[in-house]
Design a protein that fits this description.
By secondary structure, the protein is mostly beta strands. The chain has one domain: Roll (PH-domain like), CATH 2.30.29. It has no helices and eight strands. Strands 2-3-4-6-7-8 form a six-stranded antiparallel beta barrel.
């Protein structure tokens, strides 16, 4: 896990993990057998831009040769629950409902299992 921290209580963290989406596209709960795997991604948790350090966001990124791609819609107002095998990242996502001409906010969760620094081809930082 890589962290960028000053004297602040909340930092920005980034780590590679295998990710499963735990809820459906409108926030409905799914059984664990129905979770959708999106593969390996870089989980980035930190302050939301423009929030004045009042809200924490989570993003999932994939890297191509020359660009960074978003693997899933970002989560806002994030809470993280840690377990022995991984962590559950819970927050709210925003998506457009084109048919109804509205934007909806719904609860979403990602189950993330860390895969280590070697996934991105960089050496682990000491300490």
């Amino acid at each position: 896990m890589y962290g960028i921290c000053g004297s602040e209580a909340v930092c920005s963290y980034s780590m590679w993990c295998e990710v499963q989406i735990c809820r459906g596209p409108t926030g409905e709960r799914r059984k664990r057998a129905d979770w959708t795997s999106i593969g390996r991604a870089d989980l980035d948790i930190g302050y939301c831009s423009g929030s004045g350090k009042t809200s924490v966001c989570a993003n999932l990124w994939r890297y191509d040769i020359d660009r960074k791609l978003q693997a899933a819609y970002p989560l806002f107002d994030v809470k993280v629950h840690t377990y022995d095998a991984g962590m559950l990242v819970i927050g709210f996502a925003i998506a457009a409902d084109v048919a109804a001409h509205v934007t909806r906010e719904y609860r979403q969760a990602w189950y993330c299992v860390p895969t280590g620094a070697e996934a991105k081809g960089r050496a682990a930082k000491p300490g």
